[in-house]
Amino acid sequence: MKRYWLLFAQSVTVLLALYFVVATLKPQWLARPPTFTSMVPVFEQMDTERPALVASSSLSGAARMASPAVVSISTSKTARNPHAGDPWFQFFFGEQARPQTGLGSGVIVSPAGYILTNHHVIAEADEIEVQLSDGRKVLAQVIGTDPETDLAVLKIELGGLPVITLGNSDLLEVGDVVLAIGNPFGVGQTVTSGIVSALGRSQLGINTFENFIQTDAAINPGNSGGALVDVQGHLMGINTAIYSRSGGSMGIGFAIPTSTTRFVLESIVRDGEVTRGWIGVEPQPLTADLAQHFGIEAQRGVIITGVLQNGPAAQAGIRPGDVISTVNGQAVTDVPSLLGAVAALRPGEPSALEVLRRGGAETVMVTPGRRPSQREAR
Asked: What is the H or E stretch that residue 162 is in?
């Protein structure tokens, strides 16, 4: 019995010594292997985190949502020699008509086939062809144009059209991520990304009415008329111009916000043209010198330095030196904002203007007339 006990004690001693050696030199040998049930939560966590990571770092969802509604536009027009009507010129040189082509983009905004694009994309075109992202091609009809905002509305007769969702550009903030979608240089539909660099850009000399979204998303020739969308794929603007010394993108592009495009679209579809208000004044930015010259103490608004005789403003009693601070309750801070606020008035309907003058603030009722179009003004 004593011999068996001695053998057991020696075995335990050897096993303990072996355990301490392994625990010191190879501790991983003693680690407990994970069971299947303990690994399940690990895989579930990876699966649930992966989509969130993709959603936060990828803009593919926005591109997938908006891209089908962005179309390529090809235009053609015949350039004629000014002497082509001369019989002697035709006798010696024959017909000199040569077709000219142009490229641009557009956005389908209605299942009925209405397309928003830039006026300069389709101006003076004899034929306009629209190509959808699914490869279908069709000729488009011009419903109406608005050169003062550089917008145009086309219509195509096709079924099953993808339609973009119009967003609210008034909710955009500087720094928001945006995508520019179009057909630059005719290479095919292209998506570029960037941020909103600035809002309310005006006095650029591009259009009569300017309230541009500025973005650093790459916009190049051929992108004109294409979509500027947010991360939800909602339309925030129509890409219209770039600032460039080389002809290519330099990180400064401009888009017409949906707050403008919606008004133009609805007016053209309803009336075939855009009708704007007009009161007949010559405004200037309010400066300390002008305020002192006219003897007023206004701190904000737009000062009127000229009033058209017998115009709507003159008939309402507005005179040089008055400062307009609001139009129909909308604050006026600079000349472009006054121009836009007055243009939004309906001709023939009296509107309230808050005017600051030497005698204090007054509310003046003005019945605006119809603003003549650029074509009528020539």
From this structure: none
